[in-house]
Amino acid sequence: MNHIxxxxxxxxxxxxxxxxxxxxxxxxxxxxxxxxSLLPSLVxxxxxxxxxxxxxxxxxxxxxxxxxxxxxxxxxxxxxGELCCRLxxxxxxxxxxxxxxxxxxxxxxxxxxxxxxxxxxxSYLACSLEHPLWPDWRAEGYCxxxxxGAPVQxxxxxxxxxxxxxxxxxFGPSMGTPYAAAYPRPLFAGGMGSSAGxxxxxSGSIPDGAMTWRIRSSSAMIxxxxxxxxxxxxxxxxxxxxxxxxxxWADSAWEAYRRFFGAPxxxxxxxxxxxxxxxxxxxxxxLGRFDLTEIERRAISDxxxxxxxxxxxxxxxxxxxxVNTGRFxxxxxxxxxxxxxxxxxxxxxxxxxxxxPEEFGLGPDDLLCGADGVPRRxxxxxxxxxxxxxxxxPDPSSEKTRAFLRERTQRVMHLLEPTILKLDFAYGMPPxxxxxxxxxxxxxxxCGEALLKIVVEAAREINPRVTIQYYCxxxxxxxxVDMVALDDVGxxxxxxxxxxxxxxxxxxxxxxxxxAVMASSGYDWHQDEAVVMNTxxxxxxxxxxxxxxxDGSAVPGRYICRRLAxxxxxxxxxxxxxxxxxxxxxxxxxxxxxxxxxxxxKWKGETRLVSLILKEGSAVDLGEGCQVRWSGRWALxxxxxxxxxxxxxxxxxxxxxxxxxxxxxxxxxxIRAISRACETPFQSWKWKKDHLRIELPEVTxxxxxxxxxxxxxxx
Length: 715
Known about the structure:
34% strand; alpha+beta; globular; single chain
């Protein structure tokens, strides 16, 4: 008798025939969402030294309880094992997977989910026989957040990729993804679906292989690359993985990712010292401008930020932890001056790249090496023939490497006393085809995690409250990462505004998980207003903009005021959910796009709308008779834990001339116009029949925004 595992919710049904190893996800109306195999397949070397792909097969199925099963498996001619799984709509999870070796462990080249051998007839149709197994996951389209950069793209038709490898973890540029796609990786998951629904498939734990989404023509699979033929297999007769695979489904790809990550619909909100405004020196450093005094002056006087992060360029070489005194002869005095003015200081550090290891006594035994024992290197461009400087890769297996990373981190913590560390470059390491850590427990995606853990633990020993900034949105990094940053939007090419819009929608997944979120910026001041508007929703003001225009001229006052406004009035909380309104979360054939949307927070069990951006249309209905009408573009931000319509101080940031009307129970006590120079009473408002109407016939270069004080609301 066939064993069928199935579960359904109100909209979809997952059905898995475990003997045939064929699963389908269908909408209740009968439309197919996704189909394919689920049992893991192994790729090993056969006796002749050739790659051999072997699918997993079920030999026995035992039901443990209403939602849990134990499967005994075999891989013909290779090994046997067992799989435990749990199916509870809308999530299927493999809770554990074991391989049982009867003799010496067979070196694994790779492990696949969603792959089967081609039949003889199918092989005659295949346009590539590079791999012994062919993907068999099928759907109308893909959703891999920011798989493509410049311009950013997250949704694709099933034939858009062709033959492609999309890294899902820390290996980014070295395995096929352009550098531009650092954020929001690592994801450890990818999505497939259609207008009928979406499935997100990936790992529920950090894998010990390099995780890649492999697409061949219009089919996909997940590959975990090990190459133990080069590096050796872990000792022992049992190989075990905890939570190695997970599948979640929903109507939309965004919601399927939320369920995959296990994020609540709305977490409890809390004030967070991690959620502070940041100015980053990279906007000037990358242009060869290293005047710290000028950067500090502008960061404080023009942009009103709380933290200044010294990015790549402050050291003798990347991540030496030693000040470049030739470039910064008065470094200690300048940093002390920043702190004396109330500015917190942060520092950039690289995790996976090191430039001159010999200066700290690190040799080949402490670095990632090829099978020949020679240290491997990389460049920004990932082009061996380029003239870029090259970097080595620290191996966390080495005690000397761990000691160096720990000592360097604590030296920086003592030197700068930073309140924030911007950690970078665990996503450009060599893949297992090239190099691997000597300790099998630290291979694959765990290498980046191990480097991050060494640095974070060393920093927190000095300052337990230091903010750790990184790029991931997976909850698997939550214990190590405090603040998710959207990276430099300059990596979105000439479409910084559109790229930031798309990135912001994925950042809402991090907001649901309780991460602090730093909105970052691009390099183009002319596109920065779109970034500032999104920042009103997603979190902390952050910038890598230069303090002047590219030609050295002054930044227009309008742009300065928008940055000053968001630094002054941003939310200082973490734990929130998006109110989408007419914002597009993305769908098959539709890219994510910010229009009007809001930020919901939960205080004392009550859901409150605390920020709102209005950029398209003229009215929005927020429910229960609460309608806001407007012309122009506005950002509204509550200045306490109350909703927009109950706060004692409501900040309004205008992005162009216009008017706004909202319901209120009583007239405000006052409205103040906040400019760069002063605060003055604002007179162009009326309150009539429980409604406030504000008229703003022009937005001057010096206007930061309006502050409505003492209002009470009806909704």
